[in-house]
């Protein structure tokens, strides 16, 4: 995959390094001399392009027409918005991702500027805190479909409603599926007649709306 990153600050440079290590083709665009001096020590020479990412000519020369993903990670939100718009409207980049520097500007980063994914650190942190507080003993392992669905793990304590209950008899939410049960070091394939035991580690795929019902089912008494 060819990823074009605009902005060599800490976020952009670290992302570029991770993608290079994973074997992706990466080109990072940066014009600030003091920043270039640092990233030239961290990234391969061919991964760094010197220039201003808001300049159409620079984008062309950096290979934006071949890029499958563009990441706008510059220090000014207005530059990131302009770049996102140009990437899709002018160059037809398939996937456009933007970093939000000021949370007050988050409302601008949407389809109007062709932003597919907006990374707002303040919002992400708030969501993680809220989620961890609401999940109780459940732990989120994976997010799917932009956070609409989660793969969660819960260890079943003594006194939980689900103990001794067959899966087919459980009042599971509509968009909820028990995918696996780990019991005494072995994997139990969940079927309708499978019953849940104390200390089982249950993997469940669910949407956000079903998390509360799952918590009520698998958590122990308060």
Keywords:
single chain, 222 residues, alpha/beta, Rossmann fold, Alpha-Beta Plaits, 2 domains, six-stranded parallel β-sheet, five-stranded antiparallel β-sheet, 6 helices, 11 strands
Write the layout of secondary structure elements.
Blueprint: E1 2-6, H1 10-21, E2 25-30, H2 33-42, E3 48-50, H3 56-62, E4 69-72, H4 77-89, E5 95-100, E6 117-120, H5 121-135, E7 139-144, E8 149-155, E9 176-183, E10 186-188, E11 201-207, H6 211-218
Parallel strand pairs: 1-2, 1-4, 2-3, 4-5, 5-6
Antiparallel strand pairs: 7-8, 8-11, 9-10, 9-11
Walk me through the structure.
This protein has 222 residues and is α/β, with parallel strands linked by helices. It has two domains: 120 residues, Rossmann fold (3-Layer(aba) Sandwich); 87 residues, Alpha-Beta Plaits (2-Layer Sandwich). 29% of the residues lie in helices and 27% in strands. The protein has six helices and eleven strands. The strands form two sheets. A six-stranded parallel β-sheet has the order 3-2-1-4-5-6, with helices on both faces. A five-stranded antiparallel β-sheet has the order 7-8-11-9-10, with no helix packed on it. β1, α1 and β2 form a beta-alpha-beta unit. The longest helix is centred in the middle third of the chain and has 15 residues. The radius of gyration is 23 Å and the shape is elongated. The model has no long low-confidence stretch (mean pLDDT 87).
